[in-house]
Design goal:
Elements: E1 4-5, E2 19-23, H1 27-38, E3 42-46, H2 53-59, E4 63-65, H3 67-73, E5 76-79, H4 83-94, E6 103-106, H5 110-113, E7 124-130, H6 134-142, E8 149-155, H7 161-171, E9 179-181, H8 184-199, H9 201-216, H10 221-230, H11 232-250, H12 253-266, H13 269-284, H14 286-296, H15 300-310, H16 313-321, H17 330-333, H18 337-343
Parallel strand pairs: 2-3, 2-5, 3-4, 5-6, 6-7, 8-9
Antiparallel strand pairs: 1-9, 7-8
Length: 344
């Protein structure tokens, strides 16, 4: 069984007198910075001079420096920027500021596990990875509720890496819920596999295939949308609340029987073999290399895939149907042209 830590296992005194630099102020960065600050930890933020996030951080009364200066001033340096841009930032701004006794902290193991970043041996390298988006981490912290996190120690030069990691986890609120011990390898490979085969790639491909099967058979796209996409939230919420067993308890017997008898026909032995190939590509580093090469070449193929997916009929139908649902916040659900351009 996994080792799990709770409130009594972490002590904020292990960050006393230390400065934590949060490099990046996006989804995870802003939540880590504000939660640590509110827990009494000294926090500064590292952002490039032209970053639009500077104003957001400063509005929260946080001291903001360029990444190199923040890393120079800090004892704990949390790199909370996208995987594809992390190595360049590290080499240019962080590595020159590292000294014995400092700690490098990550919220995802990608750059370390696949060796896009190679820290010197005299610093601690740890990971504290909350299992939720940053806005949720912050929201629940303000309500006095913690979000589970993962803890991994890649390098323990000081013999205090675990204590530092647990103090950090306590500062962001995760020890209230529990922190599970893992490794950079396990976190990275399971995270990528889960995203590709189930959570993002698998789910979106299954939804789209079901929708297109009904439309090609002559059914109205609007009806296909409801059956293959809209109602998925009900099912996922039931699974989230009580597992697959609770979902099956909650749906009709007809649906449950169809689940048992037809589900394995869709997700059959061929799909399982394909999943093993996807996992092998993650484990070997082939996917990581492909993704980093794609970014190095300007992301043209990635952007073409995004544009093609956005033009799919299911997106057009859904955009119109969601106008019938005032309980859905379109400000959160609809991606504007400006937002899409900003992500490029």
């Amino acid at each position: 069984m996994a080792k799990v830590y709770y409130e009594q296992d972490g002590d904020l005194k292990n960050l006393a007198g230390k400065t934590v630099a949060i490099i990046g102020y996006g989804s995870q960065g802003h939540a880590h910075a504000l939660n640590l600050r509110d827990s009494g930890v000294k926090v500064i933020v590292g952002l490039a001079a032209g970053s639009p996030s500077r104003a957001k951080a400063q509005a929260q009364m946080l001291d903001v420096y360029d990444p190199a200066e923040a890393a120079k001033r800090a004892d704990v340096i949390a790199l909370l920027v996208p995987d594809h841009s992390m190595a360049k930032l590290y080499n240019q701004s962080i590595a020159p500021q590292l000294a014995a006794g400092k700690t490098l902290l990550f919220a995802h193991g990608f750059a370390i596990h696949f060796k896009f970043i190679a820290p010197p041996p005299n610093v601690d390298v740890i990971m504290v990875a909350p299992k939720c988006p940053g806005h949720r981490l912050r929201e629940l912290f303000t309500e006095g509720i913690g979000v589970p996190s993962l803890l991994a120690i890649e390098q323990d030069a000081s013999s205090r890496a675990e204590a530092t990691g647990l103090a950090y986890a306590k500062g962001i609120g995760s020890l209230k819920a529990g922190v599970i011990r893992t490794t950079f390898k396990e976190e990275t490979e399971t995270d990528l596999f889960g995203e590709q085969s189930v959570l993002c790639g698998g789910v979106s491909a299954l939804i789209t295939a079901g929708f297109e099967t009904l439309v090609e058979a002559g059914y109205q796209p609007e009806i296909a949308y409801f059956e293959c996409l809209h109602e998925l939230k009900l099912i996922v919420d039931l699974i989230y609340q009580g597992g697959i067993k609770y979902m099956r308890y909650s749906v009709s017997d007809t649906a449950e029987f169809g689940d048992y008898t037809r589900g394995p026909q869709v997700i059959d032995a061929h799909v399982r073999e394909t999943m093993k190939k996807v996992l092998a590509g993650v484990q070997s580093g082939a996917f990581a290399k492909e993704w980093m090469d794609e970014n190095a070449k300007g992301r043209q193929h990635f952007l073409e895939l995004r544009a093609k997916a956005s033009a799919n009929l299911i997106e057009k139908v859904g955009s119109e149907l969601r106008k019938m649902m005032p309980w859905i916040s379109t400000s959160k659900g609809e991606v504007t042209a400006a937002q899409a351009a900003a992500r490029q």
